[in-house]
Write a structure and sequence with these properties.
CATH topology of the largest domain: Fumarase C, Chain A, domain 2
Strand order of the largest sheet: 2-4-5
Oligomer: single chain
Number of domains: 2
Order of helices and strands: HHHEHHEEHEEHHHHHHHHEEHHHHHHH
Strand content: under 5%
Distance between the termini: 16 Å
Shape: elongated
Helix content: 55-70%
Structural class: mainly alpha
């Protein structure tokens, strides 16, 4: 079965744990029997009784099969860099369980039970974030996971505290045990790390995208811009689904604004692109994000190790499902879409601080000159967008051959996912600064009021950062509203509309 994005989001947040049905255990048992039967017949099977990669032609004797799997984990645990966060590590564990339950991996049920025990105990292997090229699977990071979970080698964060893996296993009454034929290979082959990081980026992008729609509508009102460009007839004439939906959302957000009604008959003909082209730009980004979401949803439930076991006829087939190109493309798409979302947000912010364009006080503060107001907040947003343009360069088009040219084309999916995650985090900061500026602009129009929905968003901002009357230490305001953006509160404000429909 394919898990829904809502279910995957729940695993990521730690709000739910994957539950296995009896049929899942039956598939696991059946695939393990296929591996045991192949060994009993003495057949050479890649990764079961042979070496790995370029060493696939080397036969391994029965007395060395356990050592083969142990050595595989230890030799492949070559990751470097900062550890993945607990929410990502938890999702990696969950995706590995989901993959193994497909019944194509040939592992015993005790392997899956161990992963479930770690999840239940809040025990997350410390997984270095760097060292995978996204084929043949996320070998190095997954080797760290498996070495910690099964051998007691490495480190585990138990309820947030990092400790020696053996000590953590002892605390949860889970002793190290020997992996059987193919089990080590099944654990380290696969795209679970790339996919988990990309899903983290996707869920962060979802929250930031919803907040950007709210910020965009607030900025239009603060600028006394027009909602005419959001007329459904314009969108229907083009026919792009995302564009149509974004325009609908913007109209609903602005509906009933006294500020808008106050200048319906003004002589301004057109607003700058960053205001009036929001349906076209944000709609295109929405379509791209939804495409990425579909790919990652499929990948999250996929069997991606090698070789794969097929219980209907007992075949064990070597292939390339470990190649993470789908996840790499999806991650690159997220990074590109979020860069455009943030770029548009920064341009609206630039309009708000410019008195010639906005008609508001310079840099959104009284007594400008002695007060700098939002001057450097806009500079910060510009700096972030500049960083994001580099993050948006696709990793998926790069490849460096590995494993003595046996693995001669790789996806770089893990790096693509890490870039996408950072892009989503940067976007949240840019959008937070715009929300602060737009709230400031709306305040200058008092006693005129904005719409009911935008007033709610405005109140959320003001609960975290009061009106900017004179210069003050600004960083805490930005941090507080960034947390608001990342919380996904805007998703609730836009309900029942959703960035990713159920």
């Amino acid at each position: 079965m394919a898990y829904s994005l809502d279910a995957l989001r729940g695993f990521w947040r730690g709000e739910a744990t994957v539950a296995l049905a009896q049929t899942d255990w039956e598939r696991i048992d059946a695939s393990a029997r296929v591996v045991q039967d192949a060994l009993a017949r003495g057949e050479p099977v890649y990764g079961v009784n042979t070496g790995f990669g370029l060493l696939a032609q080397t036969h391994i004797g029965d007395d060395q099969l356990v050592a083969l799997q142990r050595n595989l984990l230890l030799s492949h645990a070559c990751g470097v860099g900062e550890d993945l966060s607990d929410d990502i590590a938890r999702l990696v564990l969950t995706l590995k369980v989901i993959s193994l339950t497909r019944g194509h991996s040939g592992v015993r049920r005790v392997v899956v039970e161990r992963l479930l025990a770690l999840l239940a105990a809040g025990a997350h292997p410390c997984i270095p974030s760097q060292g995978s090229v996204g084929a043949s699977g996320d070998l190095a990071p997954l080797a760290h996971l498996a070495a910690a979970a099964f051998l007691g080698v490495g480190r585990i964060r138990l309820k947030g505290e990092a400790m020696d893996a053996a000590d953590a296993l002892a605390q949860i009454d889970a002793a190290p045990f020997e992996l059987g034929p193919k089990e080590g290979l099944a654990l380290i082959n696969g795209t679970q790390v790339s996919t988990a990081i990309a899903l983290d980026a996707l869920f962060r992008a979802e929250a930031a995208f919803a907040a950007a729609l709210v910020a965009g509508a607030m900025s239009v009102d603060a600028m006394k811009g027009s909602d005419a460009p959001f007329d459904p007839r314009i969108q229907t004439a083009r026919g792009q689904k995302g564009q149509i939906e974004v325009a609908d959302v913007l109209r609903i957000l602005m509906k009933g604004s006294d500020i808008r009604h106050s200048h319906v008959a003004c002589d301004r003909v057109q607003d700058p692109y960053s205001l009036r082209c929001q349906p076209q730009v944000m709609g295109a980004c929405l379509d791209v994000l939804r495409s990425a979401a579909q790919t990652l949803q499929i990948e999250a439930s996929a069997a991606t190790d090698n070789p794969l076991v097929f219980t209907d006829d007992g075949a064990i087939l070597s292939g390339g499902n470990f190649h993470a190109e789908p996840a790499a493309f999806a991650a690159d798409m997220i990074a590109m879409a979020m860069t455009e979302v943030a770029s548009l947000s920064e341009r609206r912010l630039a309009l708000l601080v410019d008195p010639k364009m906005s008609g508001l006080p310079a840099f959104l503060v009284g007594e400008s000159g002695v007060n700098s107001g939002f001057m450097i907040a806009q500079v910060t947003a510009a700096a972030l967008v500049s960083e994001m343009k580099t993050l948006a360069h696709p990793a998926s088009v790069d490849s460096i051959p590995t494993s003595a040219n046996q693995e001669d084309h790789v996806s770089m999916a893990t790096f693509a996912a890490r870039k996408a995650r950072e892009a989503a985090r940067c976007a949240a900061k840019v959008i937070a600064i715009e929300q602060l500026a737009a709230a400031q602009g709306i305040d200058f129009h008092a006693p005129l009021k904005t719409s009911q929905k935008l007033a709610t968003a405005h109140a959320w901002v003001r609960a975290r950062a009061h009106f900017y009357g004179r210069d003050r230490y600004f960083a805490p305001d930005i941090e507080a509203v960034t947390t608001l953006v990342e919380s996904g509160a805007a998703c609730g404000l836009l309900a029942p509309w959703r960035v990713f429909p159920a």
